[in-house]
From TrEMBL:
Keywords: DNA-binding, Phosphoprotein, Transcription, Transcription regulation, Two-component regulatory system. GO terms for cellular component: cytosol; protein-DNA complex. The keyword DNA-binding applies. InterPro entries: CheY-like_superfamily, Sig_transdc_resp-reg_receiver, WalR-like. This is Response regulator. It comes from the Bacteria. The modification 4-aspartylphosphate is found at D57. Residues 3-129 form the Response regulatory domain. GO terms for molecular function: phosphorelay response regulator activity; transcription cis-regulatory region binding. Pfam families: Response_reg (PF00072). GO terms for biological process: regulation of DNA-templated transcription.
């Protein structure tokens, strides 16, 4: 079963996505900000149980706990430093597509505009197959 890390500061969005992904057979760990996401990722990597894929929200609290536009890009960079082979998808809202494209240039495999969770499941399956 693929192991996913989902980092999103919106609790309702995070829970909804997690439930959808769990129903589809994924193992899902969650975090609500960059600091928690980095800690989860490092712990899994150090214990030789790395994540197969990371789902990172673009806008969330940064490493200082302050909500910042595109803080997810900073988290993406740190995760790729730890695991250069990481597969990541950046989660975004409609008005952030340009920033999401920048995330792909920085190493994310793709981006996904939030709203249709089945589309996210399809994208994950396409990437991991």
């Amino acid at each position: 079963m693929p192991k996913l890390l989902l980092v999103d500061d919106e609790a309702l969005v995070r829970r909804s996505m997690q439930k959808t992904l769990l129903r589809k057979g994924f193992v899902v760990e969650t975090a609500s900000n960059c600091t928690e996401g980095l800690a989860e990722f490092e712990a899994a990597f150090k214990s030789n149980t790395p994540f197969d894929l990371a789902l990172l929200d673009l806008n969330m609290p940064n490493f200082e706990g302050i909500p910042v536009h595109a803080a997810g890009l900073d988290l993406l960079s740190k995760l790729i430093e730890i695991d250069p082979d990481l597969t990541a998808i950046v989660l975004t809202a409609y008005d952030e597509v340009d920033t999401a494209k920048e995330a792909v240039q920085r190493g994310a495999r793709s981006y996904f505009v939030k709203g249709r969770e089945q589309g996210l499941v399809d994208l994950i399956n396409e990437i991991l197959v």
